[in-house]
Prior knowledge:
By secondary structure, the chain is of the alpha/beta class. The chain has two domains: 2-150 and 282-330, Alpha-Beta Complex (Quinone Oxidoreductase, Chain A, domain 1); 154-279, NAD(P)-binding Rossmann-like Domain (Rossmann fold), CATH 3.40.50. The protein has helices at residues 43-50, 99-102, 143-146, 152-162, 178-189, 201-210, 238-245, 267-271, 285-297, 312-320, and strands spanning 2-6, 17-21, 31-41, 66-73, 85-88, 91-93, 113-114, 126-130, 134-136, 170-174, 193-197, 214-216, 226-231, 246-254, 276-279, 304-307, 327-330. The radius of gyration is 19 Å and the shape is globular. It catalyses: a primary alcohol + NAD(+) = an aldehyde + NADH + H(+); a secondary alcohol + NAD(+) = a ketone + NADH + H(+).
Amino acid sequence: MRAWQTRAPGPLSRRPLHLTERPQPAPGPGELLVAVAACGVCRTDLHVVTGDLPVHRPGVVPGHEVVGEVAATGAGVSRFRPGDRVGVAWLRETCGACAYCRRGAENLCPHSRYTGWDADGGYADLTTVGEEYAYRLPPGYSDAELAPLLCAGIIGYRALRRADLPPGGRLGIYGFGASAHLTAQVALAEGATVHVLTRSAGARRLALDLGASSAGDAYAAPPEPLDAAVLFAPVGDLVPVALAALDRGGTLAVAGIHLSDIPALDYQRHLFQERTLRSVTSNTRQDGRALLRFAGEHRLRVAVTPYPLDAADRALADLEADRVTGAAVLVP
Length: 332
């Protein structure tokens, strides 16, 4: 099968990603073999390929927003059968026994493993997943539309919940790529007023088209104080900007797995009056099921830019340069 391997993480100019021919994987006990129909290109993939994240598996195949069909099952599989349409997401495995898992916070499990980082992912014709970490998918969406929901959608959903947006509240969204344009639609469907702040003129147009009340430059002040904000752009300089835009008691949730350094904060301006700064770490399977259930009940508009599997390196370069509107998706 075809697969892209990360051989030497580093700048994209050094071509760290290589298209290779590899033997087809075999599903182990409790696993599904999935024929990939679409795989989203996530900014986390970029962090894995360029070395922003430490190497967990040498030569790993990136990709953790996978939609496909079950091609075969390993011993003991009972929830799925060949031919079923399934989703494969970032969270691949947790221990189920630690204090975090027992209290429902499996996203904090110190033994957790991740698709496209600890194990080979979906930049390939085939991949595997444990059946307990595979998702059933809502009808009414194409494979390419579903792929971004499996990370961009899920992590955005968790970030929105971490931001503690009150009913009918005013939400600021900093950065407006794959995850943000889905999160905005969830917030709008729940009755929020959404203000988008991003450097991309194309993304600002998309935000207004989706129903945002305003769309301005990332460093501009929104037209009104915010009850909550989510930072999707991996830019630490925006943390004090977003905190300064919060009303009293507001919360900023930082959604990325990687963030550049945060400048010094001024306590009175950025944190006083009970403003809160929160990180977001991965997701639980419950987050995934909740987002996919929401997508089944509310038709989300998923902006997709398709690429053939052979152009995965170009898709990552376009993502890094902010040339992608919505979500880039590989379609084998």
